[in-house]
Amino acid sequence: MGPGLGGGFGRYQGYFGLVLDNIIEMDVVLADGSMIVVSETSHSDLYWGMRGAGHNFGIVTRFSYKIYDIPYPDWYIATLVFTNDKLEEIFQGLNTFGANGTQLKEATTYALYALNPEISATEPVIVFILEFGGPAADAAPILAPFYALQPVAATNETVPYTGTAHAGGAGVTDAVCQLGDNWRLYPVGLQSYNIRTNRAIFDLYKDMVNKNPAMSSSIVQFEGYPQEGVRAVEPDSTASYAPIWPPSEPALAAVADDYGHQARALFHEGDVPGSTLNTYVNYASSDETPEMLYGYEPWRLERLRELKREYDPRGRFNFYNPIR
Predict the structure, then answer these.
(1) Exposure winner among 25, 74, 113, 272, fewest CB in 10 A?
(2) Do 242 and 188 form a contact (C-beta atoms < 8 A)?
(3) How many angstroms separate the CA atoms of 306 and 301, rounded?
(4) Alpha-carbon distance 22 to 48, whole Å?
């Protein structure tokens, strides 16, 4: 439920929208200790604000949520590893596949810059992952242009939907989800991939991991989610990445911040002219402006601030990316 209060990306968002789009009702404990029912018909103003900025207003103790039959029981996952000379062709392929939000609703894509010592101790590789909610035969046309680039390694597997998080290294038992780790993320929302910018980001990442070996487990990650189900929702009805993840050594915090902010600035400069700098609140690193997190429309922020003044006037829930 926590991610849903800030949006909630998901593999089925191409079908059903974000997590927040499917919340029906919540019991919310407010800062004064009272509990209220929040829905379209009860405290409807807060229902709007909770779905996208919910961590600002209270604690959810119960919720009702739309559920659906799984469209297809199994997910086909292909992982292809490339040397960096294929960078431009990889991102051109991803731009073609996801142009103007037309990515197939069954498909989620990831691309990563990472060090793989088995291939090179100094030259990062590019990892392309396709997760497809359907049979392998239907995923084959998507993968064909990427296989044509001759990856240096390739694997595939079919798993049930419940196994997709673990297959992607983000299950509850995987390292990224363990208590005690401190991941610093520097997210930015992009409308498309600027290929020259992505090459500059690659060079920046290579510089970082070679000069700072303790940060060799860091990655740059590009997430591509289908938009069909999300675009079916009226954007005014809710308040609603490419991070670098260095290790949690305190001495490296300033180094990580410097590289992370450089990467974010490069990504934004290379985005569509006139675009705003946006970040996903659930990935935010806490130094973003309210506009970056919640939207640049003045009416949206004012409405959120009014809700904050009404439901949390003393700022009891200001611990994570507060509305100011």
Answers:
(1) 272
(2) yes
(3) 9
(4) 12
> Exposed, middle or buried, 173 (CB in 10 Å: 0-12/13-18/19+)?
exposed
Q: 210-242 pLDDT, tens per residue?
A: 999 988 989 999 999 998 888 887 665 444 444
* Separation CA 206–CA 200 (nearest Å): 10
Query: Would you say the pTM of this structure is higher than 0.85?
Result: yes
